[in-house]
Amino acid sequence: MARQLTEVYWKKVISLYETIMKEEAESITKAAELLASAIEKDQLIHVIGPGGHSNMGAEEMFYRAGGLVPVNAILDPGTLLAMGARRSTIIERTPGYGVSVLNAYNVNDGVLVIVNAYGINAMCIDVALEAKRRGIPTIGITSREFAEKIPPDHPARHPSKANLCDVVDVHVDCHMPFGDAVVHVEEIGKYIGPVSTLVNLFTLNLIVIKTVELLVNKGIEVPVWTSANVPGGDKANKVYLEKYGPRIKLL
Q1: C-alpha count within 13 angstroms, C-beta hemisphere, residue 172
Q2: Distance (Å, whole) CA 226 – CA 69
């Protein structure tokens, strides 16, 4: 059974990647245009994954070998699983909390990327709406299929009952299916093999790659991190640390 289930998972993940590549090309380009514009203006790309494992989206874009340098990762302890799993769920459902987090991370210009495959909780919607009030373009990495299948009265929802995919300026669908896990195990009557993190990070990296492509085509120098674990990595990154260290909270 083990081999069969792993093959099912592999095929499901590959199928999701192919769907994103095929159906989200236009949205990925629109998102990349916003990131490229921020870099051209010497502004920051703010990225937040409001809630639990969604934080890995912010981590993936931040201080990453081969990743963009001017990324302000918003990793507030409130929703980090390291600070308590149940606490994370409570905080992501707390209306108004996200606005204070944006203040703490100096999110006042540039562009805000919101990564959350579920796209319904209070923090998700609050940061998207607050960014709009501040005149900051927003990009949402989330699943429309999932959000639209959750009842309006579900306790995880924002008081407005809104879906992240409908309140951001650019929605890139990560195509996470309802329930997240994709491999059904008849013997236990449950699904295993979650895909939300995989589709989130794949989608984010497609946007980053497209951003670099757009900037290169314009002849603009692109700030990209080099792995600190290869010869010359520390030297290559030093100039970026000096430039962005005072501007990016977690650097």
Answers
A1: 33
A2: 10
Q: Can you tell me the distance from the alpha carbon of 132 to that of 232, in angstroms, rounded to the nearest whole number?
A: 41
Q: How many CB atoms lie within 10 A of CB 147?
A: 22
Please write the tens of the pLDDT for every residue from 87-131: 999 999 999 999 999 999 999 999 999 999 999 999 999 999 999
Tell me the residue length of the chain: 251
- N-terminal to C-terminal alpha carbon distance within the chain: 46
DSSP E strands: which ranges in the chain? Answer: 45-48, 71-74, 111-115, 138-142, 170-173, 181-185, 190-194
Distance CA 22, CA 67 (A): 23
Rounded Cα–Cα distance for residues 97 and 171 (Å): 23
**pLDDT tens string 151-173:** 999 999 999 999 999 999 999 99
Residue 74 DSSP class: E
Kindly report the backbone phi and psi dihedral angles of residue 143, in degrees, each rounded to the nearest multiple of 5, phi listed first.
-105, 115
pTM of the predicted model over 0.85:
yes
Residue 173 and residue 141: Cα distance in Å, rounded? 6
Find out whether 50 and 23 touch, Cβ atoms under 8 Å. Answer: no
User: 10 Cβ partners below 8 Å, 6+ apart?
Assistant: none
Query: At residue 66, what is the residue type?
Result: G
Domains parsed from the chain with CATH numbers: 2-244 (3.40.50.10490)
- CA–CA gap between residue 48 and residue 71 (Å, rounded): 10
DSSP string, 135-168: T--EEEEE-HHHHHHS-TT-TTS-TT---HHHHS
For residue 48 the two structure tokens come to: 């937040």
